Amino acid sequence: METYDVIIIGGAAAGLTASLYTARQGLKTLVITKDIGGQALLTNDIQNYPGIMQIGGFELMTKFQEQAASYGAEFKYDEVVSIENKPGEEVVSTTSGEYSCTALILAFGKTPRDLGVPGEQKFKGRGVSYCAVCDGPIFKNRVVSVAGVGDHALQAAVYLAGVASKVNLILPGNDVRGDDSLVSAVKADDKIVTSAGRKVKSINGDKTVKSILLQKGDGSEAEEVETDALFVEMGYIARTEFVKGIVNLNKENEIIIDKFGATSAEGIFAAGDVTDVPYKQAVISAGQGSIAALSAYNYIQKLRGKPVSKTDWKSVKTVKQ
User: Fold this and answer.
1) Any catalytic annotation for residue 101?
2) Is 190 a catalytic residue?
3) The whole model's pTM is what?
4) Calpha distance 275→256 (Å, rounded)
């Protein structure tokens, strides 16, 4: 089991900012996330992020990740299934392994929604993905499929068409619906084959995904479609079930934090849309991420009997407690 100073669950504005701050402080940092960007990927036009007049959500989140990675932050595309809070240690279990850390930051906001079909859990990370821009390049010049709804499904299909040899776009509705420009792009691309009015019934393969079973809404005979990967784009949902009983939640199942980003459990901090802080905006999540990161750093410093820093500005003298 690999050990880190800090593990951050979530790869959107809060989690990526937190990873930048912890990595910059010299802490061995791991970010575990199903995708990079979270809900920011749903918009191509952000106009209210300070210092940037206009930018796409994917582009902004990519800049966050690149900056964090430049300081040594590591990234693993996986799904957390449970955490264990021990004195001075947190154990994080994912679908593919276990990791331990001294401080844990919960910044997963809203996570990609599962399809909920046979084979999905088995093939997560082995052909089933929830982030086209993260995993798409792995399947260059291969056949991939996208199952989803709304603009995010269309965006994924258009992006993957620039990477894969063929994209099967599976939509539950009887027509391609969404932003006009995206609809036009989907219909104009010969690499995208649309299967409307169908749903994925199961995901099949051996060690990796080999095919998916599609069925029409009328329940008629299912059709098997060969594919090397399935990208799930079913929107986002807040999932805090795995932290119930470990940290305190409010009636909306949001994680309750104090002004330092600390939860009710020692060594566990939280930031972003998953917390009880009002106003869910990228800039607010980023600010919370930095607070949680600096609090995690101070927590680790105290455990190690070292001076506690009151700032991240290297030009300002460190304040000792």
Assistant:
1) no
2) no
3) 0.70
4) 6
